[in-house]
Amino acid sequence: MTIRSWDIFCTVVDNFGDIGVCWRLARQLAQEHGHAVRLWVDDLHSFARLAPEINPASPLQQLAGVEVRPWQPGTDKDFPVEADFAPHDVVVEAFACDLPFALLQRMAAAPRKPVWLNLEYLSAEDWVGEHHRMTSPHPRLPLVKHFFFPGFAHDTGGLLREALLGAQRDAFVSSPAAQSALWHRLGVQPVAGALRVSLFAYANPMLPALLAQWRDGAEPVQCLVPQGLAAQQVAQWLGTSITVGEPGQHGNLTLNVIPFVRQERFDDLLWACDVNFVRGEDSLVRALWAARPLVWHIYPQDDEAHRVKLDAWLARFSRIGVAGETAAAMTGLCHAWNGYEDYRDPARQQAAWAAFRAQLPALATGVDHWQRQLQHLGDLAANMVSFCEAQSRNSGTILG
């Protein structure tokens, strides 16, 4: 009784976050587990930023062992309802997107009903463990949905992590040739002795003050900004356009706008920097595995529910054994970066960065320790496979 194939449905909410997780999961299931994977995406244009080979106009394409198809949430338009179409062994609705009803009908009618998962958003809140693997029967069809939560504790599904990631990181860090190849691809000349910072963020009110602090500080800082929202804000701060590949020198701050990095190459950038500002879910997890000090710009929500999630994550970091001043430095800069009221004064923002910078060695040690602990949770993709195989054994609906 073995799981062999997956349908993964994704809607793109904030340009890259949802598709980033789904694309990474799909590749891992195909490449590490040898499973057939169909990835359904409602915005192939955004997908193409992460995977440039994607053709946004194609109704069917193969990439990295994954079949990619477009779909439109909330409607059965363009969804295949031909007589020979059958759902795969597992159907994943990522982040509570609504599956086409035509698919649900096929799932219900299948002689071997698929395992149905709702892959939830990442959160460090305590309630996640209580809801992980909970079931929800469909109100009309003989189907049961299972909620699967990634997370930071043993009662969750863990985090996405490829089997060879640690070895790849070690090989990159120890290889001057690999690092030189990265700088060549990005069109960047490393500044000797500078603190190297990657800046992947949403538009941020604190950014101008932080750039000014780096510009006027005693320490040289080289800031690498991928094309996108943060790069546009940097250009506004400078009052001029910025050309990819042409560094700008402003006091002790060197600014490099770099091409938007395809997903498989994003780790290289994180490994090569001393501090990583990241946004959303996928880049947060990659920054943790990079074992470098990081600052998380969590996806903002109107009701400020994101602050509860951020504080839960910071609380978990504070409990891994780091010193109080180290945890406080991480909390202070993350609060300032995410616009907490206590940090809207420019002087407090400057103090938050200064405290973070002073704790940088301890933060590096702490994040490295934390990511080693998180590896013991198992990998999210492997945990999903194991769970689905257990469900198929218990129900007897999928025959090996």
TrEMBL record:
Catalysed reaction, written as an equation: dTDP-beta-L-rhamnose + L-arginyl-[protein] = N(omega)-(alpha-L-rhamnosyl)-L-arginyl-[protein] + dTDP + H(+)
Highest taxon listed in the record's lineage: Bacteria
Protein keywords: Glycosyltransferase, Transferase
Family annotation (InterPro entries): EarP
Cited NCBIfam families: efp_Arg_rhamno
Family the UniProt entry places it in: Belongs to the glycosyltransferase 104 family.
Protein role: Protein-arginine rhamnosyltransferase that catalyzes the transfer of a single rhamnose to elongation factor P (EF-P) on 'Lys-32', a modification required for EF-P-dependent rescue of polyproline stalled ribosomes.
Protein name: Protein-arginine rhamnosyltransferase
Organismal lineage: Bacteria, Pseudomonadati, Pseudomonadota, Betaproteobacteria, Burkholderiales
